[in-house]
Amino acid sequence: MSHDTYNTLWKQAHTTITDLLEIEQPEEPPKPERDRLTAFQNVATMYVRYIQIFRKLESSYDQIVHPQKRRVLRHVLDGAIGRILELKGELTGLEFSEFHYFDDILSDLKLTPNDIEMPIPKYFTLERSKILKDREKLLGQILAKLGPQDKDLKEEEKPMSLEESIRIIQVHERARQGRLRAKFMREIRMQEERERQAANRGAPTIEPDTAAIRIQKVWKGFAQRKRTKREREEEMMFIGMTPLPGQPAKNTPQFLATKTESARRVTQEEHEREYQQALVTIKEKLREVEGPEMKESMQDQIRQWFIEVRDATGKFPDYPDEDEGGSAMIFKEKTPEEVEAEMAAKAEEKGKKKGKKGKKGKKSGKKKGKKGKKGKKGKKGGDDEEEEEPGFKLAPSQFVPALAEGNTQFQGVWKERDESDNFSQKHDAELIKEDKRKEVEGEVRLQVDELMREELKNLKAAVERDKGKKGKKGKKSGKKKKKKGKKSGKKGKKGKKEKDLTADRTIESLYEELVQEGILVRCPKVHMSDYLGEYSYLGTTLRTANIEPMPSLHDVRRVVTEYGILPLGSQAVHEQAPLVKSLLLTGPRGTGKKMLVHAICTETGANLFDLTCTNIAGKYPGKSGLAMMMHMVFKVARQLQPSVIFVGDAEKTFLKKVPKTDPTDPKRLKKDLPKAIKGMKAEDRIVVIGTSRQPFDCELKALTGCYQKIVLIPRPDYASRFLMWQSMIQKGQGILTNHLDVSSLSKVTDGYTPAQMWTAIQQVLTDRRIQQLSKRPLTSVEFISPLARIDPIYKEEEEAFKLC
């Protein structure tokens, strides 16, 4: 698409933002909403509209090549993500559930479920691509040094026993004899067929015309059926109901669109490089051309101020300190008399000692006054509490000001800007000059301040020589004392920091050690779009009927994106959004819990630390060893953030009773893990993710106390299974035809998880079966046999998850 397309998307997003800001920042505070359902509808409508804004801004930011527009877009994009996460928290508080359904809202806004699909910003990984490549290269080098794992070596070196060798020989010999027997029986059948045909040769024959008519009838019927079948398949392909077989990947519209997007990203890098160079060159040019003129103008203004203050007060003023803004402070005030009065008041507060007694009296008076005020405030507060209406009210937002600021900048700079002469969408030099002129002015002002301070000092010295007055010394000593106080305060803060157990080691050495110990592992490349699931269309209907619906896999994907990916991918969002430190994914076996963990790491470019009890068994023994391991993991995770700390079989950490046969010591992290999670701060882009298939076997209070958010992953529903069968069969190199009844297959496999369905597909679609697909199409019956050998997830097991 063109530049104009993405600019239009950007404008549409800001039009919606303008409408929402009128709701978010009303002139009068809104009254609390007493009806919970009405409050949910209002918040959910805002939530859906912010998702639409997010989708448009994300597409625009990914493809707009103008470097200055991208900076404004990024600021607004982070604000939209943060506001979505804030509204998510409000919805959870209203419905007491992590899963929400918007069927009626989508109907009112005339949207489809695809219109509110939560996108994952591509800049999470694209802007860190170089760092991720270097880290992957380092990880590969460390793993190459380690060589193959010991387990694999032991399996290879294990000798074969005599019984196993005899059994293998017997199997092969029996197979050989079976093949010979089958060949012999085939020859016998062929001989009998030849004898039968020879016996029938003497039978009466039909007339040639009748035989020709019969042959024509059979052939024409066959040819017409084949032609009809081909035309039907072509029609289905034309309307998009079946995929196009054998089409080259390079000719598809999807491939061409992806190629165009990649080319625009390359252009982004080129324009960004030119923009960074322009920042330096334009600033230097401004410093050379306008710098001397600025300097002279400032000096003249400051000298004029000296004269005005002296004429008004009879003496020269004190020059403002750098901390107070220097000469910039002078021109904020309207008249020199006001400036001098302010400076004199400061001098009196610092230098005079006469007012000590008076101050004490004032303090006591103030205390009395404060008590009186407190009494009044208490009364007022009591009245407010009585008058305050009960109901729901949105909490103050941390991101609405950022959205308002970005919207103002867009309206003032970019909305009506004429870019007819900037077809290639390179940087705007005039905007750079406006920004850099302020920077140059600040630098010149510092130089002028030094010169004018010296000049003022000389003027005062000349006046003092005439009048015999001494210079002021009290201010300097007072300033020194203040600085000492600041230093002592800093020292007190430093003493509160925790002890660094690895202060003498570099992050690289700690990283290498964790990789060698198998705690920092390589994450498989899995995208969130690979986790398949269809939208639940009955959610609102069931909830209206007071029936709590089971979430669909589409809902699970949305919640994991909101809690695991969006905050972790952006530092600005993570610092101000509602903080999610830990997340527990629970559900039956094969529902894709670990796949979601890998998707979070892939989409955010996060490091993966594996603290599963089976993985850390025998490593860093003892209390000191455990403390060292936790310190190293969290230190490296903070330095190389974002990071994901994975705890598989999380319920084992809080088991009521550990089996005696378990050598992994699963309760090893029971105290240290919650303590480490508690110490995580908003600036730490770290999330602890646990997975559990049997949460009902442990102490639920301890488990829920450790993990802040718990997400249940159910069995896939019919719509999700239908989507999975289609996608997985094509992934396994199968071909979807009319002979394959996917609908019936989806109905039969109720209770089976995605992992079990993929196992059945792998067993059916062998290399030999794939070669036969052109002659023998795939049918639904072929999957029944492998599925029958797998135990599904029964409803009772799923109900146990809902109860706990």
Strand content: under 5%
Distance between the termini: 50 Å
Total strand segments: 6
The mean pLDDT is: 83
Low-confidence stretches: 150-156, 353-386, 469-495
Q: Which structural class should the secondary elements be placed in? A: mainly alpha
Helix content: 55-70%
GO molecular function, one term: ATP binding
Organism: Branchiostoma floridae (Florida lancelet)
Domain ATPase AAA-type core: 583-714
Region (Disordered): 316-430, 461-500
Describe this structure in words.
With 804 residues, this protein is mainly alpha-helical. It has 31 helices and six strands. It has helices spanning 3-24, 36-63, 67-95, 103-109, 123-126, 129-146, 150-157, 162-199, 208-238, 253-289, 291-313, 336-351, 356-387, 400-414, 429-467, 474-494, 507-516, 539-544, 553-569, 571-576, 593-604, 613-616, 622-639, 672-678, 700-706, 718-731, 742-748, 754-764, 767-771, 784-788, 795-803, and strands at residues 520-521, 582-586, 607-610, 643-647, 686-692, 709-712. It has a six-stranded mixed beta sheet with strand order 1-3-4-5-2-6, sandwiched between helices. β4, α24 (672-678) and β5 (686-692) form a beta-alpha-beta unit. α1 (3-24) crosses α14, α2 runs antiparallel to α3 (67-95) and α17 (507-516) crosses α23 (622-639). The longest helix has 39 residues, at 429-467. The two termini are 50 Å apart. Mean pLDDT is 83; it is low at 150-156, 353-386 and 469-495.
